Amino acid sequence: MRIDPFGLERWFAEHEHEADIMLAESGIRSLDASRFDLDPGRFDYVIPTNGDPDLRASVGERYGRSADEVLVTCGTQEANFLAFASLLGDDGGIGEGGGDDDPVGTGTHAVVVTPTYQALHAVPEAFGEVTRVELDPPTWELSPDAVADAARDDTAVIVVNNPNNPTGRYHDEAAMRAVYDVAVDHGAYLLCDEVYRLLAEDPQPPVASYGRHGISTTSLTKAYGLAGLRFGWMVGPEPVVERAWQWKDYTTISPSIVGQHVAEQALGRREDRILSENRDLAETNRGVVADWVADRGLDWYDPVGVNGFVTVPNGFADAETFCRTVVAEASVVLAPGTLFGFPDRFRIGFGLPTAELEEGLGRVDRVIDERQEGTATNGGAA
Description:
Shape: globular
Number of helices: 12
Strand order of the largest sheet: 2-8-7-6-5-3-4
Largest sheet: 7 strands, mixed
């Protein structure tokens, strides 16, 4: 088993600790721990290790699912990893862990809609074979027909990130349900990473609510501002969730007792206020970045969430050159689109406090202006 280096994480490791401003993170600003009771009692394992039954039942209700169809995980990253491990590979996927009530088959092939977060194609590639269905600029529209063309008899899972990272495109419900139908037709699952869904003013129904072939993964990281909890979950058919729990015994065993304690609060009476605050911040900051993009003569697709995919300004050879120049000269981190397969774009995250966002954009402006003035002085040489 081989997996590619995670380009975005290596980029962050190289730059984020020494830079002043992070404009590459795709989540909302982090909440202060003082807003929560942090005392869970004894520092024991969560028992049972798949998460508190009452909490799983509460989460399941959001999807029209039972507690046994919910697995608590260490963030969305683990939820996705466990799902892929359960569905893909030479052992026939869920195998004996699924039993005779497994609603669909498994296989060694995945269809992944890209560009997307690297883990959503790199992990399936480590377990089996992947066919990518590319979204095309400038609208990044999801084509159910293209997904259908890519699906095969041995397709185990179709993977979509919605709203999409890095573009911020929120694929409409009709397109998502059409892709779900493709999964049903091929005896596969539709797995949707929905970590940005609740930043939308009018969130669509989650994929796990579509039917037995739907799997939803998410966490309290991106929409709630609780990245440090590392608290997420997957929701789907019980045979898949049961097999994923078997895999979890070999990864993190149980969720954090502190993470679960705070999660119960964040998903309880505090939830409406947290999401309202975060949506307001996202809307304000989206307007700030939209004005900046327009003023600079750049292009993006107006995103849902707190990250967008912007064209590289004139005067720079490509996205990596631009982003390396910005971090070196302005101490601001952006994410080069090269990491997502688009060297002419960069990802900007705007979930941080508004004043910090504006300071960061001002610094980027100065870098662009200095480069473009120098290019003009040198007769247009890049």
